[in-house]
Amino acid sequence: MLTFIPSSFRSPQGAGAHYLRAHMPPAAKKRKQSAAGGDTPSSSKGKAPAPPPDPATAAAADGSDEDSDFDRASLDDAEDDLEGLVGEVLNGEIDDADAANGASHSAVDVLRSGFDPIVLEDMRGEDACDDGHALAEAGDAEALMRWLVAPADLDDFMRHTWERRAMYVSRNENKNYYAGLLSKDIIDAWLKAGKMRYGVNVDVTSYADGTRRTHNLNDDGSGGVDSATDETGVADAATVWRRFEEEKCSLRVLHPQRWRDPLWKQLAAMETFWKCSTGCNAYLTPPDSQGFSPHFDDIDAFVLQLEGKKLWKVSPPRSEREMLPRYSSPNFQQGEIGEPVLEAVLEPGDLLYMPRGTVHQASCVPGAHSLHVTVSTNQFNTWADVLELALPQAMQAAVEDVPALRRCPPPDLLDALGVARAGDPEPDAEDSGADSADDGRKSRREALLGVLTELAGAVMRRLPFDDAADQLGRRLMRQRLPPPPSHLSAPKSLCGAKAADAVTGTSAVRLMAESAARLAVEDGAVAVYHPFANGRLYHMEGGEDEDAEEPEDEEEPGALRFDPEAGPALEVLVHGEDAAEGGVVVADLPLDPEERRVALVKRLVAAGVLAVVR
After folding, report:
1. Bond from prior residue into 25 cis (ω within 30 degrees of 0)
2. Are residues 192 and 49 in contact, defined by beta-carbon separation less than 8 angstroms?
3. Residue pLDDT, tens place only, 316-335
4. Which residues of 6-18 are buried (b: 16+ CB within 10 A; e: fewer)?
5. Distance between CA atoms of 254 and 540, rounded to whole angstroms?
6. Ramachandran angles phi, psi of 12, nearest 5°
7. Please, what is the angle between helix 594-607 and helix 567-575, to 10°?
8. SS (H, E, C) 173-189
9. Reduced to 3 states, what is the DSSP secondary structure of residue 29?
10. Could you please report the per-residue DSSP string of 127-157?
């Protein structure tokens, strides 16, 4: 099986990049024989991915009207073309050379053609690689992503791999690529310090005989849910390690970025790149064991191998309906999944990228434990989410604007429409005895469907896409990590209540962090949303965060609301180039009188959104 590698992939980043076209790992990564000296275990057998549904069969199965005024196959083709449309908006046109090698904007095309992965070996030594910690420290989002996927070119990754196929990068020459992110010793220290609560900070799991189990209970019976507080108990270190060593249980460490600064900085930078919340879990597995069933996730996953070795089996989405899902799957049995397109033993420094919907399972090889971090992004960050936010507003606006939508449907609507009527046969025109009543029902049905289609068009014409984008931006500001101090454009002493008190008309201010504020118009006011009141403890969980900054007034944390007249001034302060670079002088803001300009800026400085630079 050959992997499509775009022409630009075949131009390595210097002599250090070596590109493989086979889907199997390089020789150095081949699976070892078992400790008993037996043959290498065979890959799991299962059903191949389901073929694309036949349009005619699908129409009959879902009760569609076979006599409707569109051709089902043509509609399927048109909907397939939509993938090319959204891909072209993101990446531009595919050049002829790459198209000839099978490049496609369409994830459907990739799945139909075999879901072949990209497999690369990074031949660079440690001295030739960028320092990922330094990039994360600086908050250089694009440079950090380039480092993460190297030696693949980031632009090529976005154009040809992201959302379409898995990618495996082997780094035999640099096992320390991810060194310092997390370790087994650090997890041990957290457990011994009593910081880990079951189900909140750690899960203890096993997978045996096709069944996944959770063991979130201490040997003395403690650790369960407290009926008074509805909270789980603290994981006992001795119990956890006994289960790990004797019962071959795995540990899933939930959101370790809450306590681990290198992960915090990396995820904060990735949130800036992807413009959506980004999280991670860590997985610690004992030798010769597996902690989780085969499944797929609703996130784009970047698996970073930190310690030991782990065998990964990657299978295609089981059908087109399950590719790029918005929700994760249940646990699968081995017979419910397709054959792997990739089997690779990840070692320290290696990377595995999997799009949403990729079926996967992993097991630790004999001899040593495995520790990896799965960085997750793009959950609920789809075109569907934009439309889901826009449609209710469009409906509300249309009902207000279009009197016809407020009219009652005719009493016979329920007689003419419904599943029972969708399959009514059209009378045979050559049959002189055709029932005229059937003709009447058919024409009445078509008339009602025509009216509904026109009314739906009135709704569609009012889709408020800008408002929907603002709602996505507001969600991001509420969910994202607080910017680390090293990502800020100015010392924290230049913002806050004390700095705000010193603001005058001659002061100059700038954003504390680029892309860390969002304007929205809501309920007749202009709102500024920001992440500076967020904390790390409950990042990705939505709980009340103990380390979040308390607002000084009764406003919602992370939200400031202003009169509409302040809108132009806020645009300058939040989205203007000067605000992101040299600074904006308060007196130059388009808002009168001076007292209002100063009061507006003081609120933003006190909240941490702006810094007083002079």
Report:
1. no
2. no
3. 999 999 999 999 999 999 99
4. beebeeeeeebbe
5. 10
6. -60, 160
7. 40
8. CCCCCCCCCCCHHHHHH
9. helix
10. GGS--HHHHHHHT-HHHHHHHHHTTS-HHHI
